[in-house]
Amino acid sequence: MKPIPVVFHIGPLQLHTYGLGLAITFWFAFRYLSRRLRAHGWADEWLASTTVWVVVAALVGARIVHVVANWTSQYEHNPGQIIQVWNGGLSSFGGLMLGIPVGFYLAHKRGPKIPRLQLADLVTPVLLAAWTVGRLLGPQLMVRGGGYPTNAWYGMYYAGEVGKRLPVPLFQSAMTFVMLLVAWRVERYVERNGGPRGLVMAVGITIWGAGRFIEEHFWLARPGHAGDLAVEVTGVVLAVLGAILTAALLLRSRGSHATDAPAPSDGESLATTV
């Protein structure tokens, strides 16, 4: 299969497939979060303007981290490539590190006073769903979007790379969709059983961090590359912190339920004793 064109034209207008895919992904995330807010009884009029700033922050953060991680190998002697975002080169961790804080800050300033943990639980499935869609419409359509070279039947050709490559974006999308199913399951558990707020977020952090380590270590990492190693380490750290937070929330919730349980009456105590 030949690589999908990374650039196409509509009259004199030149469009980059990668950028168009990211735009669709951001729009999808906005619509999905808007729907989730309304479904849980929260107003969403503030979301459109906030999303614009989140998109800008995410793109800037993603580009900065990518450039820093690849400075010596790619950008030190070619600084003009720094602005060439249409050729790929966005760090997911960088986008999240800047985009999420900006989003929560603006949500607090402009939106209804949604408890932070509840907002985090509402946002987590949106991020996972957007990641699922974004892998298909972003890296899958960009220059050098493949993973390790392969001769397997499922290998694909990517622009800027020689020979067939592991279709890592497809693997990432499928794996993140499974994570999304898990997040939905946890969300239903919380709603039906009065689980703790923040649990969806904690589980999401755990499985996404583990997934980032797996895909980077087995499909993408270049030996000795500091940026790739940083991704692996960050993924492990996120998975461990998420697991600790998940355990803490569950233990706290069980302790709270035990404390709130009504004390048995004297008759019930006597019956139990007998």
Throw out a few tags for this protein:
2 strands; two-stranded antiparallel ribbon; disordered C terminus; mainly alpha; globular; 274 residues
Question: How would you describe what is shown here?
Answer:
This protein is mostly helical. The protein has one domain. It is 67% helix and 3% strand. It has nine helices and two strands; from the N terminus they run E-E-H-H-H-H-H-H-H-H-H. It has a two-stranded antiparallel ribbon. A hairpin with a 2-residue loop joins strand 1 and strand 2 (13-16). Helix 2 runs antiparallel to helix 4 and helix 7 packs antiparallel against helix 8. The radius of gyration is 22 Å and the shape is globular. The protein starts with 6 loop residues before the first strand and ends with a helix.
Assign the structural class, choosing from mainly alpha, mainly beta, alpha/beta, alpha+beta, or little secondary structure: mainly alpha
Number of strands: 2
Spatially, the strands of the biggest sheet line up as: 1-2
Order of helices and strands: EEHHHHHHHHH
What's the structural domain tally? Answer: 1
Low-pLDDT parts are 267-274
End-to-end span in angstroms?
76 Å
Strand content: under 5%
* Rg, alpha carbons: 22 Å
* Global mean pLDDT: 87
- Supply the number of helical segments: 9
- The 3D shape can be described as globular
Share in helix: 55-70%
Summarize the model shown.
The protein is mostly helical and 274 residues long. The protein contains nine helices and two strands; from the N terminus they run ββααααααααα.
